[in-house]
Every structure is written in C-alpha cells, then in structure tokens.
Amino acid sequence: xxxxxxxxxxxxxxxxxxxxxxxxxxxxxxxxxxxxxxxxxxxxxxxxxxxxxxxxxxxxxxxxxxxxxxxxxxxxxxxxxxxxxxxxxxxxxxxxxxxxxxxxxxxxxxxxxxxxxxxxxxxxxxxxxxxxxxxxxxx
Length: 139
Hints:
Structural class: alpha/beta
CATH architecture: 3-Layer(aba) Sandwich
Radius of gyration: 15 Å
Order of helices and strands: HEHEHEHEHEH
Number of helices: 6
Helix content: 40-55%
Number of domains: 1
CATH class: Alpha Beta
CATH topology: Rossmann fold
C-alpha cells in the first residue's frame, strides 16, 4: 500500500512538473551570486526559488515543486556536496537534475561533486550563456 501511494505521489509530482513553468532551486550563501544567477535564469524563462545554504534548500525543496537544483559547494550549515547526497536519497527527487556551480576548480572537487550525484559541475565565474545552456540541456 505504501509503495503504491509513493508511486502515485511521485507520478503526480512529475505530472505537475511537466505542466507549469520550470522551477530552479538556487542555493548559494552569497546574496550577490544568488541575485546574479537569478537574473540570468529568470531572463531565460525560469522561475527561481533561492536558498541561503543547503539546509534551507532542502526545506524549500520539500515545500515546492522544483525541476532542477543549482548549488554552490561552500555554504554554512550544509554544504553543496551534502545537499546533493541528501537529495539523491529522496524518492521524489532522486532523478532531479543537479548542477554544482562553484569556485572549487580542482579535479578532486569535481569528482567529489559527481560522486555525490551532480549531473553537471560548472566553475565560477562562468558566462551566463553556459549556465542557461546547461539548464536547458537538463530540463
């Protein structure tokens, strides 16, 4: 019974995602970066929900239908790696596209992001076109 109910809820979430404006959950502790990335994504036609860290992002993810998560790595309370890992453990969001946007540019940082479950890892600063292109390819 519980499995059937979970499948129904998951199906309803996926159906809701397909019939509305696509929503990006953007997690970054820098207000300037949040504002800049929000501006870029809004101009590309996406709705944005902002979070100030990973813990805030998880809370907002549970309260809002979201189509993609874009997260920084270095944030207080919960970093981006932990956020990605926790999202991947959630039945309703285990397949949601996740982009890491970080200043951490070492190969081991990228690998850690992919190991956590990110689909794309982008180094900041990045051209706005690259951000939008990455999102468009994923949703």
